[in-house]
Design brief:
By secondary structure, this protein is an alpha/beta fold. Helices cover 47% and strands 14% of the residues. The strands form 6 sheets. It has a 5-stranded parallel sheet with strand order 2-1-3-4-5, sandwiched between helices. Strands 11-12-15-10-16 form a 5-stranded parallel sheet. A hairpin with a 5-residue loop joins β6 and β7. The longest helix is centred in the first third of the chain and has 30 residues. The termini are far apart. Bound molecules: adenosine-5'-diphosphate and magnesium ion.
Length: 493
């Protein structure tokens, strides 16, 4: 019995002869059910597990668009294919758009063509099902990792995923919950956050979770272009509208019809562009440069800014009415340094991602590295973390841990949080100023010795001491080398 035998196709077709013919094409490979009306189809769907619906527009009690719109809501996993005699392109496009069908097949259709389409449709459904399962498994996989001594340390909290966003912090969970709510609406969304915090990824997630997900998501960086170009990128232009406009241009708003347009760095646009944008948000109409007539475009706007627009409104450089329009939902992504719970899961995520790309196995990330990462302020946010990990993976050998030796200088030199805390304790513990300073000095020297693996010439140089001076301090503070715990492989020398 082939795998296909388990898959069920429901043919909704009013003409019983045609229904039989269609069933004949398919019944060797699939389980085939029939219905002659929409009503009958619903009854079958309520009782049977169905994988694909073939709906012929000849059915009279309900229109194909209506039927599939409903089916999409009630049985989103069933593949929808419409058979229609119509050759009207506009009408067919309309059906595809409104009912999000997998395919519209013009009838009559050769049997091999129908078979091929159905095979492919079910294959791609199966692939996306497996992909979903794998992602879920990954999400549930134990975030524990080996530390240097081989013990299992659970530093990583359970991670969550929202589309491609990975996180563990409560603050991100809140933002993503709000984002999910926004996805269910058609309101504009304004995403604010420092550069590299994941604004674009968030915009894609909102689109991906919205009804529009099968339509385009088109992004435009508004910061980089002069006004006229930006206008023509978004609204389009007629040939000859300005110097250099050598042919008509559709414009992003029309090209993304049915989908989402992401306006990045929206805070940077000129006052006159703000007016055009406001008009678009109010009317849903675009007027290409140099054109006489306006066109309608059904798009959802998601805008992003790395400066709080509220402040710009207060300064008078951003229109208040536009701000109010844009922030149907307002999502603020905090800087990475304010959600350090996300750092370990992101680090793991990126190390997996880049290890896979380089076809390399990474054993894990050492606890020490995690501590350094969490202590670093990451002004470039997630993007900077991603670059760091990518670099570390490239430096590490196959099967190795990412350890402190792979860190870039900036990160290697940051003092981990618990050390900072230790220092504060050293300072606040009792004693005279001299005693406090000495405790601190002992701590700094000992830290440096560990960092440079007791290479005393390097430490002396780094601290601006002579070798003898350093040796004196080691003796005075009774510092001794401990077995080096931060290494996961033997160091030459
Ligand atoms: N939560 C996250 N999970 C996974 N990757 C992320 C996350 N946030 C950001 N990134 C990655 O960081 C980089 C910067 O994100 P991006 O969305 O371009 O930020 P922004 O638009 O705010 O500058 C991208 O490579 C993105 O994939
Ligand atoms: Mg960006």
């Amino acid at each position: 019995m082939s795998r296909r035998d388990e898959e069920t196709i429901l043919i909704v077709e009013s003409d019983s002869a045609v229904r039989k013919t269609l069933a004949g094409y398919l019944k060797n490979d699939y389980r085939v059910l029939g219905a002659s009306t929409g009503q009958e189809a619903w009854t079958t769907l309520a009782k049977e597990k169905v994988d694909l619906i073939l709906f012929d527009e000849t059915v009279t009690d309900v229109q194909g668009v209506e039927f599939f719109r409903n089916a999409r809501v009630r049985y989103p996993d069933i593949v929808r294919i419409l058979l229609t005699a119509s050759r009207e392109q506009a009408q067919v496009m309309n059906i595809i758009r409104q009912a999000a069908v997998y395919h519209v097949i013009p009838t009559p259709c050769p049997s091999w063509h129908l078979r091929l389409l159905i095979d492919r449709a079910l294959e791609s459904r199966e692939l996306s099902r497996r992909h979903r399962m794998l992602s879920r498994d990954l999400k549930l996989s134990d975030g524990a990792f080996h530390n240097q001594t081989g013990a299992l340390t659970k530093l990583i909290r359970d991670s969550y995923e929202f589309d491609q966003l990975v996180f563990a912090s409560d603050t991100m969970l809140e933002v993503c919950n709000l984002a999910r709510k926004s996805a269910a609406t058609d309101l504009p969304v304004l995403i604010e956050g420092e550069t590299g915090t994941g604004k674009e990824l968030m915009a894609r997630a909102v689109h991906g979770f919205s009804e529009r997900h099968e339509f385009p998501f088109l992004a435009q960086n508004c910061g980089a272009l002069p006004d006229e170009l930006l206008q023509s990128e978004l609204f389009g232009h007629k040939r000859g509208a300005f110097t250099g406009a050598i042919s008509d241009r559709l414009g992003l708003f029309v090209a993304a019809d049915g989908g989402t347009v992401f306006l990045d760095e929206v805070s940077e646009v000129s006052p006159s562009f703000q007016v055009s944008l406001l008009r678009f948000l109010q009317e849903g109409e675009v007027k290409p440069l140099g054109a006489e007539r306006t066109k309608r475009a059904n798009v959802r706007i998601i805008a992003a800014s790395n400066r709080p627009i509220k402040d710009l409104v207060a300064q008078g450089s951003f229109r208040k009415d536009l701000y109010y329009r844009l922030r149907g939902f307002e999502l603020t992504i905090p800087p990475l340094r304010n959600r350090i719970d996300d750092i370990p899961v992101l680090a793991e995520h990126f190390s997996r991602k880049y290890a896979e790309r380089l076809n390399r196995r990474i054993a894990g990330i050492t606890v020490q590295v995690m501590r350094q990462l969490q202590a670093y302020p990451f002004h470039g946010n997630v993007r900077e973390l991603e670059t760091e990990i990518r670099r570390m993976v490239a430096l590490a050998g196959d099967g190795e841990f990412l350890s402190t030796e792979h860190l870039s200088d900036d990160l290697a030199n940051v003092l981990p949080l618990d050390l900072r805390r230790k220092e504060l304790n050293l300072i606040h513990a009792g004693g005279t100023l001299k005693q406090k300073v000495e405790r601190l000095e002992a701590q700094v020297v000992s830290e440096m010795l560990v960092r440079y693996r007791w290479n005393q010439s390097k430490v002396a140089k780094e601290l601006g001491l002579s070798r003898v001076g350093l040796a004196n301090k080691i003796r005075r503070y009774k510092l001794a080398a401990a077995p080096d715990a931060t290494l996961s492989r033997t160091q030459p020398g």
